[in-house]
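Weekly modeling sync, notes
Attendees: S.R. (lead), two postdocs, one rotation student

Agenda item 3: backlog of single-chain predictions. S.R. asked that every request posted to the team notebook include the full sequence so nobody has to chase files. The rotation student volunteered to paste the first one in as an example of the format we agreed on. Action items at the bottom.

Example entry:
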Amino acid sequence: MPPKARVLICDDSPLMRRVLSDLLTDGGLEVVAQVSDGADLVAGVQRHTPDVVTLDVEMPRKDGLSALADLMKAQPTPVIMCSTLTGKGARESVKALQLGAVDVVQKPALRLTPSAWGPTRDELVAKVREAAMAKVRAIRPAPSRPAAVGRPAPAPAAAPPVSADLAARARGTGSPLVIIATSTGGPRALHEVVPRLPGELGCGVLIVQHMPVGFTKTLAERLDSESALTVREARPTDRITPDVALVAPAGSHLEVSAIGATRLSDAPPIGNLKPRADITISSAAKVYGSKVLLVVLTGMGNDGELGARDLKQVGGRILSEDERTCVIYGMPRAVKEAGLSDGVVPLDVMPLAIVETIAAWGRTRKAA
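Predicted structure, as returned to the notebook:
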């Protein structure tokens, strides 16, 4: 039997700490420590070395975001944010995910009784166990958004730059389509990839990120503020436009209905996932054929594998994130081990690999 995951709880409410401790303990996990403020988080983690931290967002001396940033610098540790899932709580939780938190859970009701623990306990315990397997690290800040719309965002020195010539060749490829599929650790990964793509990418981008309802709009807004590309949440019937990235809204499947067109589907979840990347990828394969580039980033499970099989049959290209940079090596592993990946790429090289692949299509098109 695997050892119990060891958890440190950080929350300013004694009652909330008690509720979380009871839920985690009832789920078979071990609570090794509790701290009452973000100001005490780093010292608590260094003393108790937990496998996972549950972290409140709003605390009196140091809020959860500041405490998370300190922790990721001092001793990167998997973190589950405990937050409200609407309004300010959603905005701050998405920022926390981009800073390196593994996942977010709805704060349990303070009057939760043992008879009503089931669903709340199961979600919390499942996410903590998943986080205990995660590899976390400090991340580089995203590049500043360029002042002139449409110009490539400057890449930091640590990331391979996308040359102006390569970006120009990528723009001459006709109508390819890039799909990015990700789950656990995805906001952090998207934060490292999307802002480093050139503003004149020359093709449309679809992003499928598994998140709670209400979070994907905030995620799209944050990515848009950091990127040369335009990034927004997809609408019910939306156009695939060059240099625009559409994020599948949580609670809907995103389908490609025709060249340059999408639609949102209210079909039931598949494997508890809605959106499901497989649906987006398979529908795109039918419409765009070989002119689809699928990028599979960090995530638990195997969403994307079935869609990748359909895409491979029509000659599309598939890049999977290298295990060394994944928070959770699940989705990329499924694609790689199925023999579907055309390239295994570390996260910091992925923007360059995307643009190189698009530019290669342009060279092939000119040669033909």
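Discussion: group reviewed the output briefly. The longest helix spans residues 350-367.
Action items: rotation student to repeat for the remaining queue; S.R. to check formatting next week.
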